[in-house]
Amino acid sequence: MTGPFDRLDEILPADVLTVVHRMTPIPTVAGRAGAIAKQDPNFVRGDIGQVVGLDPSIEVLYGPPVGLEPLREAVAEFWTRTFRLDDPAYLGHSLGAENVTITTGAAEALTLLFRCFGAGKNVGLPRGYWENYLNGVGLSGGNAVVVDYFAESGELDLAGLGRDVDEKNVKCLVANFPCNPTGAVLTEEDARAIAAFLRERDLILIADEVYARLRFDGGAPISLLAYAPERVVSLSSASKEYLIPGARIGYVVSDRAELTNAVLRKLVRANTASPNVPGQRMVLEMMTKDLEALRAGDEPAMLKKIRAELGQRKTALVEVLRKHGFDVVGRPGHEPMGTIFLMASLPNWWKDGDEEFVEAALERSAFSAIPGSAFGLAGSVRFSFGSMSLEAVAELDRRLSAWESDRG
Ligand SMILES: Cc1ncc(COP(=O)(O)O)c(C=O)c1O
Q1: Is 179 inside a domain boundary?
Q2: What pTM, to 2 d.p., does this model score?
Q3: Is 16 among the domain residues?
Q4: What residues make up the domain containing 363?
Q5: 82-107 residue pLDDT tens
Q6: C-alpha of residue 208 to centroid of ligand 1, in Å
């Protein structure tokens, strides 16, 4: 099936197309010169814009804008295996290096994708959105509007989403499941229904799947890319996969190589020249271990460890919060089942707003959390159990008890 990603020259903004089609002699010559130099060690390189040969032991050279080739290959295999893309029930084929662009974190991936698909348009953010989307959409010249994926019953509500899309004239949607901040996850049935919805309305969807593997409900990881590849572009991040946010490595995955290999090549070069090279090497090493396990049909050891620990922390945190009069909110009727976050309604003993609650908790030097208003969910607070050990959850319990008893 064809879709918007098969017509990029028609749908990308004119200024993006100018960057994409502008001749770039520096990388073009560098690519050819590099190939010749491999054959001829005495080939004279007069094209390189960095000091080389002074102290090779400390030199860290620019990498290709789209990322180191072995890492692109690894991400393509990792995505294919994690989401079973080669199964005819999904994509029906594997992805290759050309389907991957390495970026400076998911943050750069989002900025560039908003620039491509959100500029001058209304971009639909799910209620309960990562608040930094607002900045990315705004900086790329788009306008963020909030849409609801779920009904009050907690069911996926595509009729309601359709009304939001029509009323707010949305052209590009963002999905983030498992969701930061609510921990909401999709079922496979939900994913198929969303894909059909996108097709009916000829929409583009940016799928922020940084937490795809961090599910605690036993459900297999889901990538929306598998269901509507002609209009869904996915992104993820080593920050979340491997707990190394400071390495600043993210990636965009698309079934349409024109997007990842051509368009984003030019945009990344314009934006950051290349993603962090030592960071990419670090990720490659970690991902290679994961791939060995996936090829053997096993769950990667590190993921297993992270999921077990985070699952315990989440369960303990929910118990403590409920004990103190909070409840979990997000996808109604569903426990938070992924990510490192959960949203809690304000405790029944707190009569003021969410910002005041967080302010009071900080004022008491008791604990920190983020007001739900920041995510479009006023009246709630976001707790991270990524940063809370089981001991810290027990300490939270004691501090909430102390607060309650001070209130009398
Ligand atoms: C939903 C979501 N998307 C993207 C990011 C950005 O990740 P990165 O560190 O790769 O830029 C975050 C970081 O918290 C996030 O929660």
Answers
A1: yes
A2: 0.95
A3: no
A4: 301-407
A5: 999 999 999 999 999 999 999 999 99
A6: 8
